[in-house]
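Researcher: Please predict.
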Amino acid sequence: MEKNICKFNIWLFLIVIFLIFILNIFSPKNKTVSEVENRMLAGRPEFYVQDLFSGQYFMDVENYFSDQFLNRENFIQASKELSKYKGISRKEEVLLVDFEGQNVGGNSEEESNSTAAEPAAKGNLLILDDTVMEIFKFNSDKSKLYADTLNAVQSMLGDNINVYSVLTPIQIEFLDNEKYKELSDSQFDAIEYVNSNLSENIKAVDVYSALQNHSDEYIYFRTDHHWTALGAYYGYTAFAEAAGFVPLQLTKYREERFPGFLGYISNINPSKKVDESPDDVIYYNPPVDSEMTVYYYDKTTGEKKSYEGAVINEYYLETNQKYGVFIGGDFPLGIIKTEAKTDKKAMIIKDSNGNAFVPFLVPHYSEIYIVDPRSCKENIINIVKDNKIDDVIFLNYILTTNFETFMDNILGLTK
């Protein structure tokens, strides 16, 4: 009898696995955005011979099937709910967990190994009461590679183009609690190291001091890895000083506020306190009118297409991706044409932290070219020279210095 029950259980298990396999094969795989995770999902990879031999093609296929797995959103949400019951209850709620989801350029194998951790220096995400923070670990070789990458691009652009490096620190750097702040390496030292390796033809913008002077203000989201629009404004004032123009007072912008934002990194947290304390998205409408065109590539044909965008895109406020209010989120290439009384043009090469920064540039440039190295396929050297762009701004947050793929993507823009 027991033997028959055992066989029945085995067959039942195999049938369930087979049914899931069949359903997953034939289920629609056209979802592009995960609302639960607030990120873009992998699309069907294009086949290239070089990717086949390098192994990249099979990694892309694996990511595609993982992101398009049957009922994936519900599984993630259930996992998140269950994880809230883990951890140690204490007066000060502190958790340290591993996080593989930096939306930068992809993690290497050694960067992405993860296990759940008690509060100790093993993870890379600190949850302190109602705030989620990424943890930074300094790597001198990769930081120098980041500087060398910018130097290489600058040398191709030539000395007639103003090149700026805006490297932004993350929230944990300005934490008052020294015990938990020490889980992260010094971002001040890391930024200084990068700047010391930059060519003398690149102007390093001191965003660090600007943020430090206002660290008691709402300059970072509590549930997301981005700075707020206020933080981006202080970064803009530092850039204005380096670029030699007077920044507009914040009162010149029309302030709007939208509640209920749970950001990207909050989606993997095991803290109910974070979920019950969402952020407000505060944004500032520029006092200068503009038009924006967004360019992207068709996932099936690779054809370059476009649509009308907006510097402040309020559509996203009604979605889970509320940070998309800033220029409409991430895309390969965007071009903003403004009514600013100037002939100057700028290009910003950025990760998603640059999104909240762009609206503050609108009053100062007639055209702004927005480039995301993770998806853009254009040659930026040609764009700069063909369009007589004056200023090229590299704006990325400190964690990009740890991702070689991101640097490869930047160099890929020059080919």
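Model: The chain is about 30% helix and 20% strand.
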